[in-house]
Every structure is written in structure tokens, then in C-alpha cells.
Amino acid sequence: MGRTAEEAPSLHGHAEPDKPSLAWEQAEAYLEALRGRGRTPETIKTYRRNLLMLFRALPEDGRLDHTALARWRDAMLEQGYTPRTINVRLAAANGFLGYLGLRGYQLPVQLKPAKDDIQPELTRNEYLRLLSAARALGKERTYFMVKTFAVLGLTLHDLPNLTVKAVEAGTLMATANRSHQIIRIPNSLQAELRDYLQREGIQSGSVFRTRNGKTVNRTSVTGCIQQLARDARVAPEKCNPRCLRKLCQSTRESVQQNISLLVEQALDRLLEQEQITAGWEVSGYDK
Description:
Elements: E1 12-16, E2 19-21, H1 24-36, H2 41-57, H3 68-78, H4 83-99, H5 124-136, H6 140-152, H7 164-169, E3 171-176, E4 179-184, H8 187-200, H9 218-226, H10 229-232, H11 241-278
Antiparallel strand pairs: 1-2, 3-4
Helix pairs in contact: 1-2, 2-4, 3-4, 5-6, 6-11
């Protein structure tokens, strides 16, 4: 059942009738509606995370057009997300737009995963074995390729953006959903890269380059990483930038979920303490 005009949140300023602007307040109202329908807290968190990613894919003013979800889908495919993950995110976006009465902007067609499209999962222990193998074999450049994809979550397309200047600044610019995203280089990786650049005598340009100074091509990057498979005792199909990037994403999501839980627990403790200090007497509430 769709919502009536009175039930649905109003859309914010329209630059033109067919391009509404979405606001996060509408997403919060949608999440609250889902909560009222009995959706579990974990489901609400998943919806919230997926809607946040949708908003990051939109322009800063939240402007929506009829190809916005298709562009988002294509960007996620390019970044290495599986069809199943993309379908889940699109389902959240479609539900949100249906709630707002914007069904004309939905993308109902779901991706069909190919039989061999199940992306193998690289574990952190396997990732560490790849690093150890690269060190044991003296393949320093490959070591940093592996670490860069797993720590920064870069795509192959964005690898040339890791330059000497970016290492010095501690940040680099990457593209996500056709928008620019600033990625912070953690201090430990930054220190390692600085030492590597000094040893290699690289003073400008891309960090990963061939002997004649050109940026390494995508095929060479994947090939270098896959050469570690046997010594690292890791399946070759896991030794690629896509699996390393996916490991970065899953690690970040796990950390974020843990942080969200800690925030909720800290808030509960704060409210309980305030209840004890200044709260009204509540029947059955144990002070």
C-alpha cells in the first residue's frame, strides 16, 4: 500500500517538476515508519546504512533524476560489489522512494548473478599471509599493492591517484558513484610508503610505476598479486584487487557496527544515570 499525500513527508524544493530534491529528514521518517511496522533494529540499521550510501551517491542538494539509481547501480558494479549486495541496496532505495510516492524514480529491475559471479571471500588471515609472502619473496612493490587495496579500499581505476604528493599529504582523491571522495591514508601505511619511496628514489608521480617511470597497468597489478598465491597458500581466485577491496569494505562495516553498538550502550548508561539522578519515580524501575 502506498502512502497518501497526507502521510508521506513533503518533498523539499524542486528546481523543476521532474527533479525532486531528497532530504535526510525524509529518510529518518521512512526508517521510523519501518520501525512502526515491526522491523527489527538490525533491519533498521541495514536500511539506514544503505540509504546513507544512496545519499552519498546523489549530488549535494539531493537532486534526483530518472537515471540516478541506474548510475548508482553501475558505479557499484564498477567498484566490485556483487549483484546480491547491489540488489539489497537498490531494494532499500526503491522502498524509500515508494514511501515518498516517487515510484517513477525506482529501478525495479534486479541484477541476475552469473553462475560464477559468487565472489570468493578473502579472510584477514589470508590477507596477512599475502603480506608475509611478499616480504619473504622480497617483492616490496607487490606488498604495498596488496596493502593499499586492503587498507584504502581503492579500485584499480583509482590506483594512479596514489601519488608521492598524496602520500605526503596523507590523503588522496578517489571516485565513488561519479563523485569525488577523500580517503585518509592511515599513519602506519603512510610511514611505510614514505620509506618505500625514499628507498626507490621516487620523488614525484605515481607510487606504483614501471622501471621506465610509467604507471603500472591494471593487468600487471593483478598479475603481481596472484603470483603470491602459492607461497601464501591462498586460492588464486582470491588474489586480486577486487577481493582485497571487498575485505576492506567488510572490515569497515564490521567496525562501524561495533561502534554503533558501543554508542547505543553508552547512551543507555548515560540515560540510566540521569534517571537515577533526576528522573521521575517509575514503577518497576530499579534504581
